[in-house]
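Quick illustration for those who missed Monday's session on complexes.
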Amino acid sequence: MYAYFNDEIIDLRKGVIQLQNRCYTFGDGLYEVLRIIDGVPVFFEEHLNRLKKSADYFEIKIESSREIKRKVDNLIRINDFSSGELYIQLSRGTDLFREHGIKSLESIVSILTIPLRNINEDNWISGAKVVSFPDMRHGFCNHKTVNLFANVQAKSYAYSNDAYEAIMYRSDSNGKYVTEGGSSNYFFVKSNDVYTPEVDNILPGITREKTISLLQEMGENVVQKRFYFDEIKDADEIFLVSTVSKIMPVKIVDDFSFKIGEKTLKLIKRFEEMIKEYKKSRK
Ligand code: PDD
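Prediction with N-(5'-phosphopyridoxyl)-D-alanine bound:
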């Protein structure tokens, strides 16, 4: 398997870690995860747009989307990779002095094709179990930074409790409210409206955006606002969304159980159709 490291194509069997890379020493970088399906990097433009916006915000240099797309297509070809994950990492650069303060450096783009992570198929059929966990992350969660220590803790807590995902919370004067999962966004159907946490220090997920527009096309009323933990037990349907989880029904949140409802099932179908249409338009 090969990968891109700036303009070099690297044989991953030889292993490459560049020890002075600021992603390695500080977690000073950004990333994107895309699905590759039938050789097509799905929603490439949306992912690159998010990466570019964050790169501009944090003043990390980034090459053009066209150049990154050229590398991605080339990598898919040389790895003969038709289905799995695509990881794009943008590091601020190489810093021989490991100084915390930001300097203008030549950034590094690494691109890897990764086998699709192992997910129990039954999660999509019977629904996933999720467990609550405090959101202990920093204040830049609306960017996809490689600083994932707290996400790793949340997800590991879920795995050790036999769950697929964590549902993280913060608190305000009204109580605990949902932020997001370790690597996904949440939706709740309640009394015919669909709620999802507003983008308030959470990742504006690409799947979340697609889900909102599909729900609106389906004639649903989507409300983006804080959703409190004591409202969860009255939810009619719950689902989580991400590039890798797609639309996944949730059957258990801590001690509460939920049915997989009509809206979730319809959405799963519409999302698959949307991906098919995207692939067709890019072939
Ligand atoms: N994670 N929230 C967090 C914290 C995430 O890490 C992710 C994605 C999402 C969903 O975003 P999107 O729909 O753009 O994939 C929400 C990816 C899959 C990962 O880190 O592997």
